[in-house]
Amino acid sequence: MEENDDITLELPEDDVSEAPEAAEPAYITELKAQLAAEKAGRQAAEQRLHQAAREVHKARSDVDDTNLQLVVNAIETVSRDQELLKQAHTMALQNGDFARATEIQSEMSANSANLLQLENGRSAMQNAPRQPEPVAPPADPVEAFAAQLSPRSADWVRQHPEFVRDSRLNAKMIAAHNLAVADGIPTDSDEYFSAIEETLKVAPKVAKTNTDDEYAAKVVQRRDAAPAAAPANRGGQNQRTNVVRLSAAQREMADMMGMKPEDYAKNLVALKKEGKIQ
């Protein structure tokens, strides 16, 4: 039976049950890890592309510099030869060797043309616009810092990015870590993070309930009106209403995937119908 599902989101009522939020489904945790890995891979690829662009830029600059130096050397050589030809021309005239003087004069004319061409080439090279050096893509300081930590510590840092972006808070976080280690508290343990948060006066992240900031995704499945001969369903209505509640983790996942909460809720319903998730 085909159904046309319309999904809307609304804030839960104040008297919604205050049952604690269910544990994050395994597939969401796995998807989060995949998205984080893809982001890290994308940043690494951008860094490699930037490094390759810098190497190409340097190679081209080196070639340009080498060519310019070759032209400068050629100009010096031709200028020196021109001075020698002038001296030889003068001596030929003094000795009355007019035939030799005529030959030298022809060589001097050719040399002058070559010198003019080289000087024009040098001016063109010197005035040619230089390609700017490639600019490195902006790196995420939080991810760069988290990449140096254990998975659990990295997750804590991502939940408290201000302790990376603010140098003063970062110094306090490092000091809190050193205090916990000095007290003999194993790193990455529950006691360790409790000590860190107590030192930094940071409220621990607690599981949110349905009354906090969760949205209730009300999925209204509308069917075509049943024929008059069809038996009436329970309640005397020909609509079926299911309520799907999106937890904070699920809404965060929808945001990471670039999906609207309505679309994410609709996909959840579809996956449950197919038996792919519980």
Sum this structure up briefly:
The protein has 278 residues and is mainly alpha-helical.
Question: How would you describe the overall organization of this protein?
Answer:
The protein is mainly α and 278 residues long. It has nine helices and three strands. It has helices at residues 26-94, 98-127, 141-146, 151-159, 162-165, 167-182, 190-200, 248-256, 261-273, and strands at 4-10, 215-222, 239-246. Residues 10-21 and 207-241 have low confidence and may be disordered.
Estimate nothing, just give the exact number of structural domains. Answer: 3
Total helical elements:
9
Report the order of strands and helices.
Answer: EHHHHHHHEEHH
CA-based gyration radius: 39 Å
- Kindly estimate the percentage of residues that lie in beta strands according to DSSP: 5-15%
Mean pLDDT: 75
Strand order of the largest sheet: 1-2-3
Measured distance between first and last alpha carbons = 22 Å
Number of strands: 3
Low-confidence stretches: 10-21, 207-241
Helix fraction bin: 55-70%
* Silhouette: elongated
From the helix content, strand content and strand pairing, which structural class follows? mainly alpha
Biggest beta sheet summary: 3 strands, antiparallel
